[in-house]
């Protein structure tokens, strides 16, 4: 075997990957972040190099790209591009959400699938990794247009799905309504009831109680467990939560319940700030019921202010920062603002919301980081609970689901803390998460010979 050092080996693998995938910046960023943390693992486990685990892990098992044709309300034919990446099935059936957003492309889908591989492994549940979506923008579309698009999308994808093969869920632009339309189309095409084929369904058609809250609640449970190790708690802390979607809203709700104060949240246009605390109920009414810009929050809450430019939210002071909007929303410059304002914890509610430069800045400053692949694993955790309920034709109570979610998030924190200590990077949870996720998938691949 080559005497090439682990770091040189990883650099050579990355260089080859970058040459083959020059335009896939998000995917390369995700891989680069993981590679920085695996040197010690490869030094201690030569079998991973012998079996070329990393090279195999970087290539999706299957990448589907397809045309989606649908009719708008004016009977015009519209064309979008659909995607599904079945990244790795060593631990179980492919599992991961569908994102409907104009930003979706091959790079974004592959980065999400790569991150999902580690996230799903961290849950300790028997699931592999997939991700998908389309460059379709549901904003401004009628319910009928969204339904027709979902039906057209499923027409191209359904043959590749199955409860023991590939189980999609929701993501940005895909909520319970879209999942319902997708499931209805699948049932018609397949000709049978297979409730476990999609998760995040409305509860009336097999969805799990607690799924809507899972990612946001799970994020806060993760942060709470992190803080226990330092004798801290969320009560009395000031928190900034970017975004105002499903994850953000339920994170704010749980923070409020635990006695913390959310002082700022945002949408794509700007952010609101209130030192006395943001009302999750009002934000939910504005964004989910009325579908308005978050700026109207100040009409009801006079102590709040609105600032255009959502990226400026990180210039405010807080104890805990929870980026929950989208990838690369928090860069190195924003990280320095937070550090100067004495932030103590940063936990990622979105997928890869912090740039690598921001992560390096936080690490250098000794800020505790909850990496997205661990901190936002609550959504996929309850998705698997939904699969289990569908398979057994049972329904768990909200309390049962929530208790199991808390147990899983607590276990994830303990596992990655232990791995970080074992591999010489104590306290660096992003490294611990990468190590645990990588080893679980790698060991399974070796045992399976795949």
Topology (elements, then pairings):
Elements: H1 6-20, H2 25-35, H3 39-44, H4 46-50, H5 53-58, E1 62-71, E2 77-88, E3 94-100, H6 106-122, E4 129-134, H7 143-157, E5 166-169, H8 176-190, H9 211-228, E6 238-241, H10 246-257, E7 261-266, E8 270-273, H11 280-290, H12 297-300, E9 305-308, E10 320-322, H13 332-340, E11 345-347, H14 356-364, E12 368-370, H15 372-375, H16 378-392, H17 398-422, H18 429-448
Parallel strand pairs: 3-4, 3-5, 6-7, 6-10, 10-11, 11-12
Antiparallel strand pairs: 1-2, 2-4, 7-8, 8-9
Helix pairs in contact: 1-2, 2-6, 6-18, 7-8, 9-10, 9-16, 9-17, 10-11, 13-14, 16-17, 17-18
Poorly predicted regions = none
Task: Please state the average pLDDT score.
Answer: 96
Count of distinct strands: 12
Major sheet = 7 strands, mixed
Strand order in space, largest sheet: 9-8-7-6-10-11-12
Query: Helix/strand/pairing class, anyone?
Result: alpha/beta
Termini Cα gap: 21 Å
H-E order:
HHHHHEEEHEHEHHEHEEHHEEHEHEHHHH
Please name the CATH architecture of the largest domain. 3-Layer(aba) Sandwich
- Give the radius of gyration: 21 Å
Strand content: 5-15%
CATH class of the largest domain: Alpha Beta
- Tertiary shape: globular
Number of domains: 3
Helix content: 40-55%
* Count, helices: 18
CATH fold label of the largest domain: Rossmann fold
For this structure, what is the CATH homologous superfamily of the largest domain? NAD(P)-binding Rossmann-like Domain
Family: Belongs to the Glu/Leu/Phe/Val dehydrogenases family.
InterPro entries: Aminoacid_DH-like_N_sf, Glu/Leu/Phe/Val/Trp_DH, Glu/Leu/Phe/Val/Trp_DH_C, Glu/Leu/Phe/Val/Trp_DH_dimer, Glu_DH, Glu_Leu_Phe_Val_DH, NAD(P)-bd_dom_sf
GO cellular component, one term: cytosol
Protein name: Glutamate dehydrogenase
């Amino acid at each position: 075997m080559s005497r090439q050092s682990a770091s040189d080996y990883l650099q050579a693998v990355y260089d080859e990957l970058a040459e083959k995938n020059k335009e896939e910046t998000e995917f390369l960023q995700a891989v680069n972040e993981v590679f920085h943390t695996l040197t010690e693992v490869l030094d201690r486990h030569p079998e991973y190099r012998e079996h070329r685990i990393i090279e195999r892990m970087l290539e999706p098992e299957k990448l589907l790209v397809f045309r989606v044709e649908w009719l708008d309300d004016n009977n015009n034919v519209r064309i979008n591009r659909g995607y599904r990446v079945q990244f790795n099935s060593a631990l179980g059936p492919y599992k991961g959400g569908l994102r409907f957003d104009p930003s979706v492309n091959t790079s974004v889908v592959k980065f999400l699938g790569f991150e999902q591989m580690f996230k799903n492994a961290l849950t300790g549940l028997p699931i592999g990794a997939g991700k998908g979506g389309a460059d379709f923008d549901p904003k401004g579309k009628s319910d009928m247009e969204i339904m027709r698009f979902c039906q057209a999308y499923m027409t191209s994808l359904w043959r590749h799905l199955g409860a023991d093969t590939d189980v999609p869920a929701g993501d940005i632009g895909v909520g319970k309504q879209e999942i319902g339309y997708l499931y209805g189309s699948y049932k018609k095409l397949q000709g049978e009831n297979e409730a476990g084929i999609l998760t995040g369904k409305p509860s009336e058609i097999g969805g799990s109680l607690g799924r809507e809250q899972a990612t946001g609640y799970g994020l806060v449970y993760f942060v709470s467990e992190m803080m226990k190790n330092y004798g801290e708690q969320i009560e009395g802390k000031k928190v900034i939560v970017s975004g105002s979607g499903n994850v953000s809203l339920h994170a704010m709700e749980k923070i409020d319940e635990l006695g913390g104060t959310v002082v700022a949240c945002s949408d794509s246009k700007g952010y609101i700030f209130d030192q006395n605390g943001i009302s999750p109920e009002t934000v939910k009414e504005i964004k989910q019921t009325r579908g308005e810009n978050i700026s109207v929050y100040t009409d009801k809450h006079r102590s709040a202010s609105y600032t255009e430019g959502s990226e400026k939210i990180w210039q405010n002071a807080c104890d805990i920062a929870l980026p929950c909007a989208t990838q690369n929303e928090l860069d190195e410059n924003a990280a320095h603002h937070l550090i100067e304002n004495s932030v103590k914890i940063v936990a990622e509610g979105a997928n890869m919301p912090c740039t690598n430069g921001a992560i390096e800045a936080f690490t250098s400053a000794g800020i505790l980081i909850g990496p997205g692949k661990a901190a936002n694993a609550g959504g996929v955790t309850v998705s698997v609970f939904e699969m289990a309920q569908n398979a057994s034709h049972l329904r768990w109570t909200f309390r049962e689901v929530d208790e199991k979610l808390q147990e899983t998030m607590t276990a994830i924190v303990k596992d990655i803390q232990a791995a970080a200590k074992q591999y010489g990077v104590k306290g660096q949870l992003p490294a611990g998460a990468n190590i645990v996720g990588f080893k679980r998938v790698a060991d399974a691949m070796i045992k399976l010979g795949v």
